[in-house]
Amino acid sequence: MTLRRYAWPILIGALAALGIMLALADIAVGDRWPNPMAQVIIGAKPHARLPATQTLRFDRTRVGDRLIFESPISGFGPLNPYEAIRAFLANGAGLTLLALAGLIAFPRRARSAVERFESVPGAAISFGAGLVLVLLTLGVVTLLRFTLLFLAVVPLVVAVALVAALFGVGCIALAIGRLIHERLHLPDVHPLIAALVGALVVFDLAVIPYVGIVAFAAIAMAGLGLTVITRFGSAGGWSFVDLDW
Amino acid sequence: MSKALACARVRVLMEPFVDGDLEPDIAADVREHLATCAECRRQHEQAISLPFRLKALPNPAPRESFVHEVMGAIAPARAMDRKAWTLLAPEAVLAAFILWYLSGIDGLGSIASGIFNDLQGLAGGSVPSLPPVDVVLLIALIALTAIAGYHLSVLIRIAPGGLQARRHA
């Protein structure tokens, strides 16, 4: 009974620990071929050892330099748990805060989008729409490249796509949290806690070596598609009836 | 009024009484009788139950075109489901052609950096010179954009519970 009471904090702690371990593995694999493409998610590889006298603006303690261990598996790079924690705190917190911000700012729209995602073909349709939107955005941006007047619109197109994808990822995080709540029979909790768990699952998927970038791209595309097919979670959704009179 | 006569009359009046169609004084008589007669009260309770009321409703005959309309409504949805996936083929072909034409990811990267440099130039007040472009590439880009836009409209119109739900059914 006590364990069930602390199920959510335990789950959050386990997901955070898993995220740090996976980030550690990503850093250890480094830029070996085939490249795990970890730099996209966890940032550039850790800076080389610099003279101890040199001060770094954002890293005054230089603890990371003192916490580097040799890998027990030959052929892999050194283990740097401090960098893994940094990657988790920077990227994981960034992703989670952005996801929760979307839910807090537009709760009704988020609910509408999550309900659509949870319907039977919701995930497949969202992913399909996201894939099509990526092609559409690439086509439009490349076309605009060859114009003078509309060149300035390109950043706007990219920014709208980015915001849409972030809102969609937040909704997917909430859907994942609700799914975990239901499947694991966890006690009722505030929806933002469920969304936090979902966002941590998304981060953990994103830092799996080699497949993480593909998993994150798939989730981001599904998020983009979900946002567009629900018109940013509008209750009415898209309708072309008004164009047909 | 005698009880036997009253019961027969009350049962005749039961339906309009339940519907609230009786005159107030007659309704008051019926109410008074129900307070004293257990058998009529049982009939009244049955009459006001929802299933009984629903059964009492007449079944309207469907329009002759009803079956045709239902089948017609289902058919386009199935065609739309098929279209939702088959449109990926021309998009993939066009995307592959464009990627090949632009020399792969490097070409896309050079387009992105070109946009960035031109925007910087615009911000600095200088009008950028546009890169020469082949009509074949433009046609391919327009075709990809048009097909993707149409594909998106198809995906948007697929109602929840439409695709896999029907497959499971």
Which features does this protein show?
heterodimer; A: 245 residues; mainly alpha; 65% helix; globular; B: 169 residues; 9 helices; rod-shaped; disordered C terminus
Question: If you had to describe this structure to a student in words, what would you say it looks like?
Answer:
The complex is a heterodimer of chains A (245) and B (169). Chain A has 245 residues and is mainly alpha-helical. Chain A is 65% helix and 0% strand. Chain A is globular, with a radius of gyration of 21 Å. Chain B has 169 residues and is mainly alpha-helical. Chain B contains 9 helices and no strands. Chain B has helices spanning 3-19, 24-36, 38-48, 50-56, 66-86, 88-101, 104-123, 135-157, 164-168. Mean pLDDT of chain B is 80; it is low at 161-169. At the A-B interface, helix 7 and helix 10 of A face helix 6, helix 7, helix 8 and helix 9 of B.
Give a short summary of the structure.
The complex is a heterodimer of chains A (245) and B (169). Chain A has ten helices and no strands. Helix content of chain A is 65%, strand content 0%.
